[in-house]
């Protein structure tokens, strides 16, 4: 079997898996069973995100406008109840939390900001300013995951923030180049993450994705320790 044929087979399996879901509970229902407690927690998180979304969206739009940035994919800012419930149930079954109510979801409300690194160093400077202004408006920066080092299947900043009451939300910060690479590699990345994808194929996909990321220009200064925030840490995905 050629590499292209194998990739097509994996894609077909993925499509078949999604097509077999039966929300009525009949034959073909997905294997993951959502406990009532997980569903309740998901609904509460979704409601909390909906209540906080309008003010936060306006604030981020203002910050983006004031600093020559833009928001991308606003239609995806609210994570669905179904997606939240699956994440909560999965974490419980994997032993990451003892009870559904103890599962912490960082991206029930999530945004993507696009910042140009032109002139060089602008991405680093504007990111630092945006995070500082969010803090001045009552949002706590909990963690800044810096995925910009080479040799990975992804690059960008994933910032975990929280409202004054502790409700978490996520802000991803990209350049036009990194956002384009994310979009181009999305389908391959989803196959890479599938448990059923053979190891050799996952390794091939990992190498293909990292090669694509080597074309993306790293913003000036972004690899300097704590360049955008004291809570910043370098992160990388390991090769399978």
Can you walk me through this structure?
With 240 residues, the protein is an alpha/beta fold. It has one domain (36-234). Helices cover 45% and strands 13% of the residues. It has six helices and six strands, in the order H-H-E-H-E-H-E-E-E-H-H-E. A six-stranded mixed β-sheet has the order 1-2-5-4-3-6.
Give the biggest beta sheet.
6 strands, mixed
- Roughly how many Å is the radius of gyration? 19 Å
Distance between the termini: 21 Å
Mean pLDDT: 86
Shape: globular
Order of helices and strands: HHEHEHEEEHHE
Q: Which residue ranges are poorly predicted, with pLDDT under 50 across at least 5 consecutive positions?
A: 1-30
- Physical arrangement of strands within the biggest beta sheet: 1-2-5-4-3-6
- How many β-strand stretches? 6
Tell me the strand percentage band: 5-15%
What's the short story on this structure?
45% of the residues lie in helices and 13% in strands. It has 240 residues and is α/β, with parallel strands linked by helices. The longest helix has 31 residues, at 36-66.
Sequence-ordered SSE layout with sheet pairings:
Blueprint: H1 3-19, H2 36-66, E1 70-72, H3 81-93, E2 110-114, H4 122-136, E3 140-146, E4 157-162, E5 168-174, H5 176-193, H6 199-213, E6 232-234
Parallel strand pairs: 2-5, 3-6
Antiparallel strand pairs: 1-2, 3-4, 4-5
Helix pairs in contact: 2-3, 5-6
